Amino acid sequence: MQNIKSSLISLIIPVSIFLAISIAYMSPALSGKNINQHDITQHKGQSKELVDYREKTGGEAIWTNSMFGGMPGYMISTKFDGNKLAFVHRILVLGGWRPISFIFLYLIVFYISLLAFKINRWLAIAGAIAYAFASYQIIIIVAGHNSKVYALAYLPAIIGGIHLAFHGKYLWGGLLAGIALGLQIFVIHLQITYYTLIIVLIYGLFELIYAVREQRLKQFGTAMGVLLLAVMLAVGSNLSNLLTTVEYGRYSIRGKSDLSTEAENRTSGLDKDYATDWSYGISETFTLLIPNFMGGASAGELPQDSETYKFLSQVQGKAAAKKSIQRMPTYWGDVQFTAGPVYVGAIICFLFVLGLFIVDKKYRWWLLVATIVSFFLAWGRNVPNLTNFLLDHLPGYNKFRAVSMTLVIAGFTMPLLAMLAVDKLLKKDIEKQELLKGLKWSFGITGGLTLFLFLFGKSMFSFEALSDEQYLAQGYTEFVDALQADRASLLRRDAFRSFIFISLAAGVVYAFIIDKLKALQAIAAIGVLILVDLWSVDKRYLNKDDFVSQKKYDNPFTPSIADNAILQDKDLSYRVLNMSLSTFNDASTSYFHKSIGGYHGAKMRRYQEIIEANLQPEMNDIIDALRTGDMLGVNQVLENNHVMNMLNTRYIIYNPSAAPLGNRAANGNAWFVSDVKMVDNADEEIAALGQINTKTTAVVDKRFEKQLTGFVPATDSLATLELTEYEPNYLKYKAKTGTDQVAVFSEIYYSKGWTATIDGEPAEHFRANYVLRAMVVPAGEHTIEFSFKPQSYFMGEKIALASSLVFLLLLLGGIVFEVRKGLRKED
């Protein structure tokens, strides 16, 4: 029992420390507040219809019509109950105690990972702090990228488990890597999982090289077998999630377009321009060492001794100037806008470089290579030849945007090598002279660079930002001059700040080398310095001002006058266009209505294409008509907005504080057309869509001509087609017609799950008007039903249940085995 008690105590201490740190940083949560996270607020709009259905029925809708005309709910909020690893996740996130659990999860998982690398457990606490409080980890919490937070938290444990397996700890290595991977996939941020795979491949390649050199191929092969089994179980535990995501991916903007235009910009996934929008500047990489190297955030805060404040106080007065300087365009990097820099810490950079001199080659080389790879990938369009090659040829790479996110690789490798360096120091198995040499070089490189930038950085850069152009165009030259001077000051201040922290850390290392500090004292000093360094930078981006009351967090949207007016319409289904905000980058409208807009990173590719080709021009026509004040002209424009009308857009919000604009020209939920225009390809289809009256004509790609074989269009003025029942995943219509007719339904076509019946018998439907559903309805009175039942979801759930239960049984068995082994040792 003594060994078990000792193990429990050694676990309780770091857990207590991590809880204390997490609570301290997120202290406003103790008074009932939560972080005002942009993407979570948007998610509440995206998922409202799905959540309402769940609360009403206890089931999952799997499809929602509240955004972009309709899209799969499993891309937003559908629960995957088959994966029982959710139980483990629930424990690790403290039962969902947000936002405190975010920091805690970062800390505990990286701590476990460092233990897998046999790093001193007290030092592992310091290393966990370094990983958890790197600025990117904190900034994404503010943004509401919760799935990314969880995926990044589980990343270190995957690598730690793989390391254990490759070094003979097959059971616990396989379990740790497999369960961590299962949990990472469960939180569904496949971009982070993809970057995790890049780390694994680099590490695995180096392990294979050393296995060949050291003649340990049998051990390597055994580890590979165990890890492959773990991967299979991890994938199996998430099969419903993965199958539906991969299946839908081909039809989303991350899949290949059917259009042939802009061929040079297209890939089999995202367009190159879109994929590389957020490319990190080459020089911007220095933010890892100096947080304000590029000015920080796009809306940064300046001090009252700044040049900008002095200028504004003369123009606006001191009171207004104090408010203005809280959100200034201080950022001058390459991306359109940023919430803050990727800063891993000056001390971590210093220790990372030290690791390159003293850590064993088998560790330092793969960590260095992975770090450099992350830099090149993050530079994106700044290294066009490499990036274009990867987008065209590296499997899966073009499915993800924001290439700057690859810096998460460095965010893991740098603190890991830094902690390996300190651990090597503590073991004192290197001669003192060699240690001092490594210290001299690492301090000279990192400390020397920061000192150089402090002294000469002001004259080395222009400090010009993309945002400056708009101010210069308005004649605000003095304001821009003041801003650029302040950007230079921000760089110099943080360069000197980094120099101080590097100097202090180097002093601790030197004191330990010459035996002036004991191991625990050195660890404590380094841990405190790391915490102070990162904490103070993080507070620039996540502080008490970012918290709101729980009530506001739970209910972020208040219906406007326009919303309340629309909600009086109790028809089963219709859509709303909200032009008072960024229509296709905001999901708040979806909280109250079925919207033709929305906010999602994986909307349907074809829907995005009609946004660009048809909806945006039609919206511009409405704006032009509204400016004239001629309502007859507005109604005429609405009558001619045939794409908007086929989406059954009944209301248009142009001013939230006024009644909405009603659109009597909307086509309705479904209608019969008298003419079908067959076209050869997507290019012709989208071109024709802008030329037809969608009330009377349907455009159909020739790939669906089989469904129209033998059909002869005929007009029946007395025919009716009415929606009689509506649920997100079920639609019921009553049709009455004297002749066979082609019916067009104002519903998004998606073949991977939607099935149709006529009078209970299976019926084929096909795509019309580029994005909608259509079918041939025989003469007579009929009941038409559409149901969304994707086999990928239901089959995947069964396999996920079996796989995750196997995992949990193996974990339970491993724990029992270790406890019994400990008891036997004591006996």
Q: How many DSSP E strands?
A: 18
Query: Which regions are unreliable across 5 or more consecutive residues at pLDDT < 50?
Result: none
Q: What's the Cα radius of gyration?
A: 30 Å
* Assembly state (oligomeric): single chain
**Widest sheet, order of strands:** 11-12-18-14-15
Discrete helix count? 29
Mean pLDDT level:
91
> Distance N terminus to C terminus?
9 Å
Structural class: alpha+beta
How much helix is in the residues?
Answer: 40-55%
The coarse overall form would be globular
Fraction of residues in β-strands: 5-15%
Largest sheet: 5 strands, antiparallel
What can you tell me about this protein's structure?
The chain is α+β, with helices and mostly antiparallel strands and about 850 residues long. It is about 55% helix and about 10% strand. It has a five-stranded antiparallel beta sheet, with no helix packed on it. Helix 6 (about 135-145) packs antiparallel against helix 7 (about 145-165). The longest helix is centred in the middle third of the chain and has 37 residues, at about 475-515. It is globular and about 95 Å long. The model has no long low-confidence stretch (mean pLDDT about 90).
What keyword list fits this structure?
alpha+beta; four-stranded antiparallel beta sheet; 10% strand; globular
